Design the sequence.
């Protein structure tokens, strides 16, 4: 396996949308589904927004889209991770870890002091992955998604400034 992670371009949007759909289908009946629903969230429009903000990345293996991650700057010098997704047929191959490592390098390159993300409190697989990659839980917050049955999220951070 030879994973290449690069900034996405407009020609990658179909592949990212298909990837989102595959992940949504996989998560549909999982108890740790963080509210992802095919063609609702995340969807192509989300990818388009991250692309326009110069923060969408795609992971490919031999040309096939196997993962995606979005990064946006936050006030205070942090970079925030959004919509990290690994194609269901390629889970447990180190792609998620590679994307988190890429995000760490990108954040350092941009001079960010930290990487941050929110994860739904019942998404145990994601929580394990983030903690394994050096993220530390800072707190538990209501980020306004209670109407979707997602009352509490953990805020995680990975410090980059020592």
Sequence:
């Amino acid at each position: 396996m030879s994973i290449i992670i690069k900034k996405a371009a407009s020609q990658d949007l179909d592949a990212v949308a298909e990837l989102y759909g595959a992940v949504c289908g996989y998560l549909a009946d999982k108890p740790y589904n963080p509210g992802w629903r095919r063609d609702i969230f995340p969807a192509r429009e989300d990818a388009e927004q991250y692309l326009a903000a110069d923060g969408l990345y795609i992971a490919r293996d031999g040309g096939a889209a196997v993962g995606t991650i979005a990064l946006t700057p936050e006030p205070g010098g942090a970079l925030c991770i959004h919509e990290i997704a690994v194609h269901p047929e390629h889970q447990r191959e180190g792609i998620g870890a590679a994307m988190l490592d890429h995000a760490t390098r990108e954040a350092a390159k941009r001079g960010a002091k930290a990487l941050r993300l929110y994860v739904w409190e019942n998404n145990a697989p994601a929580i394990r992955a983030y903690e394994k990659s050096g993220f530390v839980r800072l707190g538990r917050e209501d980020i306004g998604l209670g109407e979707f049955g997602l009352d509490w999220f953990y805020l995680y951070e990975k410090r980059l400034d020592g």
